[in-house]
Write a structure and sequence with these properties.
The complex is a heterotrimer. By secondary structure, chain A is α/β, with parallel strands linked by helices. Chain A has helices at residues 2-23, 30-39, 56-62, 94-101, 128-141, 155-163, 178-181, 223-230, 245-251, 262-271, 296-311, 314-323; strands at residues 76-78, 104-108, 111-112, 116-119, 124-126, 147-151, 169-170, 185-186, 191-200, 215-219, 236-240, 257-261, 275-278, 284-287, 290-291, 334-336. Classes of the chains: A alpha/beta, B mainly alpha, C alpha/beta.
């Protein structure tokens, strides 16, 4: 009997051991879940960076702005006053505030060859518009380096940053037009660009009329994109966020043509000799510097600097410096009182 | 079919004269055929003679219809037919139907030999006897078992062809063994005959129980016969015990094998694949971070950075190829591998174009870098992350199987059943014989107990080691790898924001999001919190504290760079980040190096624990086989002694 | 010889076991040791829709085929079943038979089959029933019907007529033909103790369509007409006596079982022919002396 009882005890021990074995040693999923969740953190986006077609494009057309007094002559800006001495800006003026700050804040592009681009070797911004702005800084501070450049990425930023005051002035191939004049002020025209088409040198197209059904790249939010959308030959618009993305797209074969200001397109041609400009001008694109509407004194000041540059030939010299023989004529200034 | 004697109808006729006549005829016939009393006026002996003559005539007709049947019955044909005829009135001119009925009658009594049965089968197949025997018009298949000669006859009847017979032998190789077992259970040993007399000597007297094997008894009757005698019961008990012990062995083997496979899979397959997927993700993220940083430093990148970038690309390509071969199960994994394999060359092409343009000072290079980085961050790295996820989930599944309670429960339950039965049988035997101890059965019980203990201990060890492998090893690998990948992404964000010169708001936002996922430096929540508690588990607190300090330093430098950026002082910012006065880049490198060390420490902890886990069950499978077979043999021996006492 | 029915000649009951012998004998025709003129088939064993080919061949060889029914049960209290009558009629048409034959007996009663030909009571009442049944049968048959008397070991009590009287009455009232079975006569005469020759004298010999001869055996003191043994001498003697009184249109040997070698059967046939001839000779002799 004793052995029987021993056997029963052993049986009970087996059961207990089993229970213990089942209990100890468990696994959990928390680390797995946490690490996978962290890895799935979505890429942050800022709403204004998504390239879209200008949502106002259609809307604005319905409102007949040609009756607005601003649009009678879009290129007419405020008449300049006497330029003050550098370092001695009039009290209460916007220039005084800039002076007190210590440097001018200007919005530019860093990707547009010849006009505003970052030189990879020196790490410094250069270009026609950069030099223009340095002239402006000199006019305020007497020092061309008293300037802080803020790089603008999207076309809308060019107007918004001026409106909200994060920059003082923008010189970024901004075309003066009626819609924009509702929101901001422009200086006199400092460059007359034309909208043209750039195609690969092997392409057979000879103008926008041959691009029906073909993809044509333009920067989102620009007049170039609006114009190509309106073309009767119905090309397919291909918007991108930044200008040079169009050249990448053309080189990778994702688009068949680029449309932009001939100034910009010339910069592309320098970077890619296997391209050619085709067709005549689609539309004149007069460039003006963007200034907040609330600072008319600054507008007059900038126009004054431009007038002096036109008079002493430094503007033309700038053209030659950056554009060589293919420079267009220096545009005349037009004023309204 | 003729009317049976018990169910005769009342003779019925149209007129009264006929009616009376009919009744008298019916009475006479019934007397002659069914043996009812003879109506008055008839000579009894003559009537008997007529009756006998009728039967003889019928028998002759039947013998002519199925001669094989008649031949096999030989002289007993007439007496057997007389027996049959007593219960079966004559058929209406249907000798064949009568013969088939006679044959079926004999077949039910199992007195026909194979030849007669064959003839009967063929006749029944060819003729339908529901009314007068006539040839069937539809095909039919029939079979007959000839046990004596070990063959089965299959017959097919087709209306046009008649009956086609096929004889198939069925002597099976296991028949002799099966017969031997059957003989044993019936009370003999295989070498002896099948019919013996068994005597049981009990205190109350002796009984002689004859047990001879009948040729075809039903299974329940057979069981009843066995269970009626004590040796029969003991034999059944022995069979049952052996079965249960062997079943226990099978269940235990399956449970052990499952656990072993899970542990092995985790150690040798899924976790290494996880590490490979992590290496892939890390290489890709590092390549992106390196490429974007390189752009910041200007046209000529440092050779060290270039080599690092190329090394990352090579590693990534190699890992993708290796993973492509090993992860062919899941469709999402296959899709991810395909994405990476196709897009990685596009990425590296764009980076090279960016480099080439950069060297010429052309700003389109920056556009290419933007495009490449977008491709990497938006498509390639997420695909690698998906691959990583697949492997991580497989590892979790392996862990689940490796510690699942079902194996333990199954083994314990079967052990309980087997041991319980063994112990109960020992009680029963003790009651039966007057001996308390049956050594063999005791030994069998001990073997089983030992085996169960071994198995359960093995399970417990394996479970705990596997759990350790996870808690101190793979968990850390997972969390730290995720941390590393996120940090690389943050570094890339940093460079891209700097390169955008104030225009890269989304990169700044992404950096903030990544830092948020990592969690605040105090470790209250986020991935770093997990990492620190894991570090506490493995007593790696000190090195983890180092890491957090470096991270805080990195964040501080980042904030300084941010301030410079906001103020437009980009050259200074770039210089602080990666340039001459660089502070951020070295800190980033130190972070990466730290994480790399911790990850490989965790990895080796995992490997040690996981291999220990697989070895915990080492030797159990052959052990189970040996011990259960040994146990079964002991049961047979132990019970055999008892059974032999009854001879 | 009744010229109205034609002469059938020597015959044998057709059985599968001796189909070959019959075919040989028929093929040999007059050159055969036993010249067959007709055969008799068991009506229930031949399907009128598909008679065996052998029968057609025998017909082609000039033999007549007479269907012999066993299960019409004219002696039953019930009327003969129309289906059976139709079958018999169809058979006769199919085989081009000159007549059909059946029995004065019953084979079923009260739903039970006897498997054997049972005698009918020899009473007026039974006679009326029998006559009505035979009339009905004849009305449905396209050819003449011959009735055979049966041998039986038992007899109904309270018989009003004796066998030959009963037989003559039936034949008279129905105008049917007679199938005279000398073996049955011998058996009944032996077993019930009457004079077979007196029977022959009283039976309407002019109604004979043909004659049956068959073998039998003694058993327990009684004679059994088995059709499975050789024809016994006295039966042949009775045949001779019959032939001495009237010319039988046909004489048929019945053999159902335990078939002997063919030579024996042929010998039996020749024996029958010889006995018939002896009788005929005696008749001729008597006629010439008168």
């Amino acid at each position: 009997m004793k052995t029987r009882i021993l056997e029963l005890l052993a049986l009970a021990a087996v059961v207990a051991a089993a229970a213990a074995a089942a209990g100890c040693g468990s696994t959990s999923d928390t680390s797995l879940r946490d690490s996978l969740d962290a890895l799935r953190t979505p890429a942050a986006t800022v709403s204004s960076t998504t390239p879209t077609l200008n949502p106002l494009a259609g809307l604005v057309q319905q409102v007949d702005l040609t009756l607005s007094p601003l649009c009678v002559n879009t290129e007419a800006s405020l008449r300049p006053t006497e330029l003050p001495t550098p370092g001695r800006m009039p009290r209460g003026s916007f220039m005084r505030r800039i002076e007190q700050r210590g440097h001018l804040v200007a919005g530019v592009d860093q990707n547009t060859l010849l006009y505003g681009y970052l030189d990879p070797f020196t790490g410094r911004l250069q270009g026609l518009e950069i030099d223009l702005l340095r002239n402006l800084a000199t006019a305020i501070f007497g020092n061309p380096n008293a300037i802080d450049f803020k790089v603008l990425t999207t076309a809308d930023e060019r107007l918004q940053d001026v409106e909200d005051g994060s920059v003082d002035v923008v010189a970024d191939a901004v075309t003066i037009n009626c819609e924009r004049l509702q929101d901001v002020a422009f200086s006199t025209v400092y460059y007359d660009a034309q909208q043209r088409i750039l195609v690969p040198s092997s392409a057979k197209a000879r103008g926008v009329q041959d691009l029906g059904g073909k993809r044509v790249c333009a920067r989102a939010g620009t007049t170039s994109l609006d114009n190509i959308t309106k073309q009767p030959s119905h090309p397919i618009p291909f918007p991108v966020e930044q200008r040079t993305d169009c050249l990448v797209a053309l080189q990778e074969g994702r688009v068949d043509a680029i449309t932009s200001d001939d100034s910009i397109l010339r910069g592309f041609q320098v970077q890619d000799p296997y391209t050619k400009l085709v067709g005549s001008s689609l539309e004149p694109e007069p460039y003006g510097m963007v200034i907040a509407k609330s600072h008319p004194d600054f507008v007059r000041f900038v126009n004054g600097v431009l007038a002096r540059m036109r008079a002493d030939g430094s503007l033309k010299a700038l053209y030659h410096k950056w554009l060589g023989t293919s420079a267009p004529h220096v545009p005349r200034a037009q004023y309204r009182n | 079919m003729p009317r049976r004697c018990e169910r005769l109808e009342h003779a019925d006729s149209s007129t009264e004269a006929r009616q009376e006549y009919a009744t008298r005829q019916a009475e006479l016939l019934r007397a002659l055929v069914c043996g009812t009393p003879l109506p008055g006026g008839f000579d009894a002996s003559r009537a008997r003679a007529v009756g006998e003559a009728l039967v003889r005539k019928r028998a002759r007709a039947v013998a002519r219809a199925l001669p094989g049947l008649a031949a096999s019955l030989g002289d007993s044909h007439s007496s057997k037919f007389a027996d049959y005829a007593r219960g079966e009135p004559p058929h209406d001119n249907d000798a064949l139907g009568d013969a088939i009925a006679f044959g079926s009658f004999l077949d039910r009594l199992r007195t026909l030999d194979a030849r007669a049965r064959r003839e009967l089968l063929l006749a029944r197949m060819e003729y339908a006897t529901d009314t007068r025997a006539r040839r069937r018009r539809t095909p039919l298949v029939g079979a007959m078992l000839d046990r004596a000669r070990g063959r089965v006859l299959v017959a097919v009847y087709a209306p046009a062809l008649g009956v086609i017979e096929v004889t198939l032998p069925f002597r099976s190789p296991f028949r002799r063994q099966a017969e031997g077992v059957k003989t044993y259970l019936e009370g003999g040993w295989p070498s002896r005959g099948t019919s013996e007399t068994i005597r049981r000597v009990t205190s109350s007297g002796s009984e002689a129980i004859g047990a001879s094997a009948t040729r075809e008894s039903l299974p329940t009757a057979w069981l009843r016969d066995r269970a009626a005698t004590t040796p029969g019961r003991l034999r059944l008990l022995a069979a049952l015990l052996v079965l249960v012990v062997l079943a226990f062995g099978v269940v235990a083997s399956i449970a052990v094998r499952d656990r072993q496979q899970a542990a092995h899979s985790a150690a040798a397959e899924t976790e290494p694949l996880l590490v490979q997927a992590d290496v892939l993700s890390r290489s890709l993220s590092d390549a992106d971070a390196t490429a974007t940083t390189t752009f910041l430093t200007g046209g000529i990148e440092s050779p060290a950075r270039r080599q690092r970038y190329l090394h990352d690309l090579r590693t990534a390509s190699a890992e993708v190829t290796a993973l492509a071969e090993e992860v062919h199960g899941s469709t999402s994994a296959n899709a991810a591998v395909a994405t990476i394999a196709t897009k990685l060359p596009v990425y590296s092409g764009e980076i090279e174009t960016a480099r080439a343009n950069n060297r010429q000072g052309l700003p389109v290079g920056a556009a290419y870098l933007r495009s490449a980085s977008g491709l990497m961050r938006g498509t390639i790295v997420p695909a690698a992350a998906r691959l990583y996820e697949v492997e991580a989930r497989r590892l979790a599944t392996d862990y689940g199987s490796g510690v699942s309670a079902s194996a333990v429960v199954a083994v314990a339950a079967m052990a309980l059943v087997a041991l319980g039965l063994l112990i109960l049988s020992q009680f029963y035997i003790a009651r039966l014989s007057n001996r308390v101890l049956n050594i063999a059965l005791l030994a069998a019980s001990i073997l089983l107990i030992g085996l169960t203990a071994w198995a359960l201990t093995g399970f417990a060890l394996e479970q705990s080691r596997l759990s350790t492998a996870q808690r101190t090893g793979s968990d850390s690998v997972e969390v730290l790898s995720a941390t590393r990948i996120l940090l690389l992404r943050a570094q890339s964000d940093d460079s891209l924001a700097l390169a955008a010169r104030g225009g890269g708001d989304q990169y700044t936002a992404d950096f903030a999001a990544v830092m948020h996922a990592l969690g605040p430096p105090d470790g209250s929540h986020g991935l770093l919190a997990d990492a620190s508690s894991l570090a506490a588990r493995t007593h790696a607190d000190a090195s983890f504290d180092d890491f957090t300090r470096t991270l805080r330093g990195y964040e501080a430098v980042h904030r300084r760079i941010g301030v410079l950026e906001d103020n437009g002082k980009f050259p200074k910012a770039v210089s602080l980040a990666v340039g001459r006065t660089e502070k951020e880049a070295p800190l980033a490198d130190r972070l990466n190096g730290d994480l790399k060390r911790q990850i490989s420490a965790a990895q080796s902890r995992f490997e040690n624990a996981a291999t220990d886990a697989t070895s915990a069950l080492h030797g159990l499978l052959p052990g189970i086989a040996l011990l259960t077979v040994g146990s079964a043999l002991l049961v047979l021996i132990g019970l055999g002694f008892r059974i032999r006492e009854y001879r | 010889m009744n010229a109205a029915h034609g002469s059938l000649g020597l015959g044998i009951g057709w059985r599968r076991e001796i189909a070959g012998l019959i075919d040989d004998l028929a093929a040999a025709g007059a050159a055969s040791p036993a010249h067959l003129g007709f055969i008799e088939i068991v009506a229930e064993n031949v399907d009128p829709k598909a008679p065996p080919r052998e029968l057609q061949r025998l017909r082609d060889l000039g033999l007549e085929i007479v269907p012999h029914g066993l299960s019409l049960s004219l002696g039953s209290a019930e009327r003969p079943e129309p289906a059976r009558l139709r079958r018999l009629a169809r058979l006769a048409e199919e085989l081009g038979s000159p007549l059909v034959s059946e029995h004065i007996a019953f084979v079923r009663a009260g739903g039970l089959e006897a498997g054997h030909l049972m005698p009918v009571p020899r009473t007026q009442a039974a006679l009326d029933v029998l006559v009505a049944n035979v009339d009905e049968a004849q009305s449905r048959l396209p050819v003449p019907l011959a009735l055979e008397h049966v041998a039986s070991l038992v007899e109904w009590p309270n018989a009003e007529l004796d066998e030959v009287e009963f037989l003559a009455e039936v034949l008279e009232r129905t105008d049917a033909l007679l199938l005279l079975d000398v073996a049955n006569l011998y058996a009944n005469a032996r077993n019930h103790g009457f004079d077979a020759l007196a029977w022959l004298d009283r039976v309407p010999l002019e109604r004979i369509a043909y004659v049956h001869v068959g073998g039998g055996t003694d058993r327990d003191g009684m004679y059994h007409d088995t059709h499975a043994h050789a024809v016994v001498g006295p039966v042949l003697g009775l045949l001779e006596e019959l032939a001495a009184r009237a010319e039988p249109p046909g004489v048929l040997l019945e053999r159902d079982d335990r078939f002997p070698p063919w030579a024996e059967l042929i010998a039996e046939l020749t024996g029958i022919a010889a006995a018939t001839r002896r009788g005929s000779d005696r008749r001729a002799e008597r006629a010439s002396t008168l």
